[in-house]
Amino acid sequence: MALNLPTPPKTWTKTADRPLRSARKSLGIWLFAHFVGVPVPWAATRQTDGRALLDYEHQRLLALAAAGERVPPVLAFDGHSMVTGDIGTTLDHWLHRTAPGERLALMRAAAADLAAFHARGQWHGGAQTRNMTWDGQHFARLDFEERLQPGMPLATVQIYDALQLVLSLTQYLQAQGPQAVQAVLCAYADTPAQVPDLRAFVRHLLPRLQRISRLAAWSSRLDGSRELQRLRTVLDGMAAFVQDRPFQG
Question: What are the Cα distances from residue 14, in Å, to 73, 79, 91, 129, 211?
Answer without folding.
Answer: 13, 11, 21, 20, 41
